Amino acid sequence: SQQGEEDPQALSIQEGENATMNCSYKTSINNLQWYRQNSGRGLVHLILIRSNEREKHSGRLRVTLDTSKKSSSLLITASRAADTASYFCATGITGTASKLTFGTGTRLQVTL
Amino acid sequence: ETGVTQSPTHLIKTRGQQVTLRCSSQSGHNTVSWYQQALGQGPQFIFQYYREEENGRGNFPPRFSGLQFPNYSSELNVNALELDDSALYLCASRDATQALEVAFFGQGTRLTVV
Predict the structure, then answer these.
(1) In angstroms, rounded to a whole number, what is the distance separating the alpha carbons of residues B59 and B73?
(2) Which residue of chain A has the CA closest to B59?
(3) Does the beta carbon of B48 lie under 8 angstroms from any beta carbon of chain A?
(4) I want to staple B64 with a disulfide (CB 3.0 to 4.6 A). Which of A3, A12, A107, B60 is the partner?
(5) In chain B, what's the furthest Cα-to-Cα distance?
(6) Does A98 touch chain B (CB under 8 A)?
(7) Separation between Cα atoms, residue A23 and residue B92, nearest integer Å
(8) Nearest CB to A40: which of B48, B88, B103?
(9) How far is A33 from chain B (nearest CA, A)?
């Protein structure tokens, strides 16, 4: 079963605009990660935020985490057509037996 | 691009048949996980191998089985294929002993069961 849901399911914006995606999860976590997937192929890790962190930046990406609300958001600033992809949040528990539990994903379309 | 490679990239099988998917982990990674991703859904955890032993399993029946070899490459075997097994199968590797939570994914194998 999925850990949670992402919102919105689909997002269409123009190049240069910002894109915000939200993720909710259900259980306690050690970390939350965001992955990107192009055209149903492999996933690429974007950013990881630990449960004791509230905000993290990486280039044009900004991630926030609210453990009290069990939610996270991913902001992509100044979007580009190349950002068109599906974005997934995944929660994890640290350790050798850890696994990633993915959300349902947000499909982002960036048009010129 | 990660160092994780999967083969084959595409596969068509008939219901009831058996299939083996292969994954070569990124160098130095001792943990491999397999995920099933149905169309329009997020990946679902199938199982994980750490140093050749299964150490985690998701909600998948026993006809889904796996192996990890001494060189940390891995296989996913599915017996008695069903139509619902049609999906993208993803392999991911990481170095669990370094407590690195980031997983490196291969490009996946698209399995179609007809």
Answers:
(1) 23
(2) A1
(3) yes
(4) B60
(5) 42
(6) yes
(7) 22
(8) B88
(9) 8
Cβ–Cβ contact B45 with A under 8 A: yes
> How distant is the Cα of B107 from the closest Cα of chain A, in angstroms?
4
Out of B45, B104, B107, name the one closest to residue A99 (CB). Answer: B45
Q: Alpha-carbon distance B95 to B103, whole Å? A: 9
Could you report the per-residue pLDDT of B38-76, keeping only the tens digit for each?
A: 999 999 999 999 889 998 999 999 999 999 999 889 999
Between strands B19-24 and B74-78, the pairing is antiparallel
Whether omega for the bond prior to residue B43 falls within 30 degrees of 0, making it cis, is no
B109: closest chain A residue by CA: A41
Measured in whole angstroms, the distance separating CA B78 from the mean position of its chain's CA atoms is: 10
Asked if B60 reaches chain A (Cβ–Cβ under 8 Å), the answer is no
> The tokens 């994954």 sit on which residue?
B23
CB contact under 8 A, B45 and A100: yes
Per-residue pLDDT of A84-108, as tens digits, reads 999 999 998 766 567 889 999 999 9
Please give the Cα distance from A103 to A74 (Å, whole number). 13
Q: What is the DSSP string of chain A?
A: --S-EEE-SEEEEETTS-EEEEEE--S--SEEEEEEESTTS-EEEEEEEETT-SEEEETTEEEEEETTTTEEEEEE-S--GGG-EEEEEEEE--STT--EEE---EEEEEE-
Please, which residues bridge with residue B47 across strands? B34, B57
Q: Are A107 and A8 in contact (CB under 8 A)?
A: no
Mind listing the pLDDT tens digit for each residue in A23-42? 999 988 888 999 999 987 89
